[in-house]
Amino acid sequence: MLIADPHDPRLDDIRDLNKSDKSGEGLVIAEGHLVVSRLVSSRFPVRCIVGFANALKHYVETYGEPGCPMYEVDRATLAEVVGFDMHRGLVAAADRVAPLEVSEAISDAKTVVVLEGVGDHENIGSLFRNAAGMDVDAVLLGAGAADPLYRRSVRVSMGHVLRLPFARFDGGFTTWQRNLDLLADAGFHLVSLTPDNEAVHLAEALAGHDKVALMVGAEGPGLTEHAMRATHVRARIPMAEGTDSFNVATAAAIAFYERQRSLYQG
Fold first, then answer.
1. Which end of the chain is more exposed for a tag (fewer CB within 10 A), N or C?
2. CATH class of 102-265
3. Which residues contact 166 (CB under 8 A, 6 or more apart)?
């Protein structure tokens, strides 16, 4: 259905994306063919897909009918509505749903990652993309972790935040760690990542464990002492002399790979 008026209320779900990620309106926004397709196949009910004529045609030919309204707009109209030139030419909005409980997210999991204080949305998106690519079953969010459904996180993750189960622990910065007992009681071996030279080698920390929870902290400060005390072991990634740390998404990716390697070797 063609919409030529940028003020048409049917476009309100994607309006002013340059000013808001729409989380305050209870929405999830996806951009581009691949991410939109992952939104459509996710647990989030899609309200509409908006795009250029050729983008909508390509979407249907590639992924099939989405089962929601599809609105055609030209480039100028879309730019006026969202607030910038959206060259991808395809955007979708969906309703948020009730968040998963931690017990639901880990019910069939063997490998999970726990995030404390990771507040950068691009890091969150990168972590989810890395986790999805390396057999991590769920992402658990501690205090200070940013919203995975923020528009930038969805985009950077290539839509994997829409596919990978995630849940948030209750509690503040000095209390959320008590909930890690849920993982220990479920049989997870809890490993906190730290650059401390006194920590054990990551490969040693992971060897021989059927279920593992890898915990990473924010850029700079890393994990709190409260969090590390709640884990079974502190592990380090060996680094070349003169370096002190990795980007959190990079460190997590290395840990995910080492976890994969330990499983295949075991």
1. N
2. alpha beta
3. 100, 105, 128, 138, 139, 140, 141, 148
Distance of CA 143 to the CA centre of its chain: 15
Alpha-carbon span 140 to 104, nearest angstrom: 11
Query: 241-247: long-range contacts at Cβ-Cβ below 8 A with a sequence spacing of 24 or more?
Result: 244/195, 245/195, 247/123, 247/219
Sort 46 into a burial class: Cβ within 10 Å, 0-12 / 13-18 / 19+: buried
Residues 41, 65: contact at Cβ < 8 Å?
no
The stretch 147-171 carries a mean pLDDT of 97
Class of domain 9-95: alpha beta
Q: Give residue for tokens 């400060």.
A: 221
CA 218 to CA 249: how far, in whole Å? 10
The H or E element containing residue 123 is helix 121-133
Instruction: List, for residues 180-212, the tens digit of each pLDDT value.
Output: 999 999 999 999 999 998 999 999 999 999 999
User: What is the domain partition of the chain in residue ranges?
Assistant: 9-95, 102-265
* Residue 114: count of CB within 10 angstroms of its CB: 31
